[in-house]
Q: What sequence folds into this?
């Protein structure tokens, strides 16, 4: 059994959570892909016209995953909830928006001096999806053994009954146009982070923070914030065995125009 208090166990625990986070991202990408499938086709059509071998294997995988996580869920210690905790006030939400936008700006300035431009190889991989101007402007940094520090305002968020995202275990974080990687830079993490860079560019930093906070207050889970869901959805399209070329800027503009954020 691991104990985070034991220095010898600390690295295995961090590795465990890193792998758990990676598995969660894979599951969310699959969830986004399946959601798009459900929007386009009925269950009857899928059962009637879908390849039976693919449907059966998919159903078996989903059942096995459900059983695996259900067994784990039963063993997770329950965290006491306060059902009487009042929802955040308008002033508290405005303060959270200020915290987030200031944090993103400060972290950008902090990491920018050590960050580097994208390589020509990375640009060649990503140019079908992002504008050359964005790819030239973005800077990236691998922390290599270090991790992004947890923001101080997370304590205030917890005091209001919210559990902020585990930034120290995320693959990457987008600080406007500076992308910082807790783990190794991968194509998946880079693409996902660049989607957020485009969202911030299209919406503006303050509006991005407003939409992120408003959605998080409503859903209380960061993976269900539409800004995050869209990034996962586009990353899933990018990683398909036969990649589909599309403009991320156009996709985000469509969501902005449709009010889906």
A:
């Amino acid at each position: 059994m691991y104990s985070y208090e034991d220095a010898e166990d600390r690295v295995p625990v961090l590795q465990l959570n890193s792998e758990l986070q990676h598995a969660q991202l894979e599951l969310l990408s699959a969830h986004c892909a399946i959601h798009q499938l459900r929007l386009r086709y009925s269950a009857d059509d899928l059962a009637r016209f879908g390849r039976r071998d693919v449907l059966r294997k998919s159903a078996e995988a989903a059942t096995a995953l459900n059983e695996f996580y259900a067994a784990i869920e039963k063993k997770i210690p329950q965290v006491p909830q306060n059902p009487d905790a009042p929802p955040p006030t308008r002033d508290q939400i405005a303060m959270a928006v200020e915290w987030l936008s200031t944090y993103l700006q400060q972290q950008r300035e902090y990491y920018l001096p050590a960050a580097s431009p994208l390589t020509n190889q990375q640009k060649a991989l990503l140019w079908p999806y992002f504008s050359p101007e964005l790819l030239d402007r973005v800077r990236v940094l691998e922390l290599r053994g270090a991790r992004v520090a947890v923001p101080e305002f997370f304590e205030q968020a917890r005091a209001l009954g919210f559990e902020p995202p585990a930034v120290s275990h995320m693959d990457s974080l987008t600080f406007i146009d500076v992308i910082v990687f807790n783990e190794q830079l991968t194509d998946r993490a880079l693409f996902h982070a660049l989607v957020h860079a485009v969202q911030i560019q299209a919406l503006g930093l303050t509006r991005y923070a407003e939409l992120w906070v408003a959605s998080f207050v409503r859903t209380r889970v960061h993976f269900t914030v539409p800004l995050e869901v869209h990034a996962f959805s586009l990353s899933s399209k990018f990683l398909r065995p036969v990649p589909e070329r599309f403009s991320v800027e156009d996709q985000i503009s469509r969501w902005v125009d449709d009010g889906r954020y």
Q: What stands out?
A: The chain has a mean pLDDT of 87. DSSP finds eleven helices and four strands in the chain. Residues 7-73 form one domain.
